[in-house]
Amino acid sequence: AAMLYGQTPKWIDWLDRRMPGFGIPNLALYLIGAQACGFLLTLANPNAILLLMLDPSLVLKGEVWRLVTFLAVPLTLSPLWMVFTLYFLYFIINGIEAEWGEFRTTLYVLVAILLTIAFSFIFQTPIYSTTKLGSTLFLAAATIAPEYQILLFMVLPVKMKWLACLTVAYIVYALIVGSWLSRLYLLTMYANYLLFFGPYFAGRFKAFYRRKKFQQDMAAGRAGQDESRE
User: Fold this and answer.
1) Are 68 and 78 in contact (CB under 8 A)?
2) The pTM of the whole model exceeds 0.85
3) How far is Cα 68 from Cα 225, in angstroms, rounded to an integer?
4) Which of 127, 19, 38 is closest to 85 using CA atoms?
5) Torsions phi, psi of 176, nearest 5?
6) C-alpha Rg value of the chain to the nearest Å
């Protein structure tokens, strides 16, 4: 699981050294607390979602709380599914924080939030759900610890990497069949994942390319030696 810690982009390491104390400890508790409050409010009054969601036109009219409360829009309205959701969010965010530390985890979440707000204002599109934010958090956790096994629905053992593959497959499908606006939203929401993990995958690809080229050169060299003997 420690393989990625030292491979975050240099600009993140630079910020980490120069902004001590920026990270929020136990960030998972704040996010699941917001979700729990939003869920209870929505149970009491289904119209509460309309007060919590991020609506740029209403923010510009003075309802600035929406810049934060959209994080409380419940990911599900089912009590049973909400229990699973809160547990899973706590698990993955704590896992990221244990590996990355408070600063990198806070920065990752903050970048995702800022990208969401920027998209909403640029395209004047209300945000009704934080599902994509949860998805980017899961992808980060799965990339950090791909072999870690979790109990899906508390019963089925599944490795994180396989769930990540399903997530990526869904993203690709949504990019193919979605509208241009939904495609832009997906690209915006997963941009923070690419910012943090892009250099790692680029390095892996370069190493794979160099290894393949070395193998091809070795094979060509052996073939040349065989021909010279003949």
Assistant:
1) no
2) no
3) 68
4) 38
5) -75, -45
6) 22
